[in-house]
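In the laboratory, one determines a bound structure by crystallizing the protein with its ligand and collecting diffraction data. In a computational setting the workflow is compressed into a single prediction: the sequence and the ligand go in, and a structural description comes out. We illustrate the idea with zinc ion.
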Amino acid sequence: MFVVFRCRRCGRYLYARKDAKSRICAKCGFKNDLRKVVIVAKADDERIAGEIVRKLQGCGTEFKSLG
Ligand SMILES: [Zn+2]
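The predicted complex, in structure-token form:
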């Protein structure tokens, strides 16, 4: 199982294994604690998780802060 969430610093969508402890953001390098992030979607495998991220991310390059 994979989880899709947003980087807590820059808002980029990321995915990680559900049992992982943390995930480094590919955009800003922030180490996201997976116990603290808000899960926006779940996927059975990595390929699907990647597709969800692409859909959520859209084609824009600017991300709103989570505030
Ligand atoms: Zn980030």
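The helical segments are 46-57. Keep in mind that any predicted model is a hypothesis to be tested, not a measurement.
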